[in-house]
Every structure is written in C-alpha cells, then in structure tokens.
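Q: Could you fold this chain for me?
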Amino acid sequence: MSAQQNDKTPDVVVRGTADSFRQDVVVGKHSLVADEPVSAGGGDAGPDPYDYLLTALGVCTSMTVGLYARRKQFPLENIAVSLRHSRIYANDCEECETKEGMLDRIDVEVELTGSLSAEQHAKLMEIAEKCPVHRTLTSEINIRLRPAQKSSSR
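A: Sure. Below is the predicted structure, expressed as structure tokens.
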C-alpha cells in the first residue's frame, strides 16, 4: 500500500496569535474556537484542547452506538456519554502495561435509555468501545510534524 500524499487539503486548520491561547479553528464549513480557562491564563473563549479530545471520543461513541442500534432495530431512545480526563500514577492502574511514571486516563460513562433487554444493553456497551476514535486513541499513533511550505499568497 502506498504512503498517503501530503498535497490534499487539510481536514482541520487552526490559527492563533502569539499573544493569547485563543485559537480559531476551521473544519470544512464549520468554525470553532479553542482557548484555555482564565485560571490557566486564557480568556475562556471556547473549550480547551482536552475538551475537544473528549468531545471527539464522546461524539464518536454516541454516534457508533446509535448507528448500531438503528441497524439492529434496538429500542434505544437516548444516549448520554460523560467523559473526564485525568493523570494517574501508572502503578495505580492494574490493567495498564506501563508500570512507572504517569498515565493519561479517560473515564467514559455511557447511559442508554429505552426498553432494551439486558443482552441488547450489553451489546451496545461492547459496541461503544469500537468507535473509530476509541480505536485510534488506543492504537499506535504516528504524528508527523513538519514545517509548512511557504505560500506566495501571504
């Protein structure tokens, strides 16, 4: 399989200035704002980067569960996904491979409402762990950072 080309239009563009944490984000036709809370020196004009990370996982989890329930015609009515990010000591995590230093932990709670059988509920909870963002976050990630090519339109 050939390597992906770098000449395609970016999926997300983030722009900011050196004088604040505020960032303007363009995702296709959507505009978002990111910032840090006042307590961290920001202006609290939008969610912080970890809020967006949790948002991506929560949205993907909810969409994946909903899609599966629709396809299987399960009587699912609503999905609520609550997430929290924290740092923990590796030796406090029995199921983790890393045993030294600190780890990032994301706690995810999924609430499913509707007339689901115990089997349907269990299957939807299993499917929740299979959303593409969950798989990405729990797999090896290769992030390639490089300088942008200078544009003559600046």
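A (continued): Helices lie at 49-72, 118-128, 132-137.
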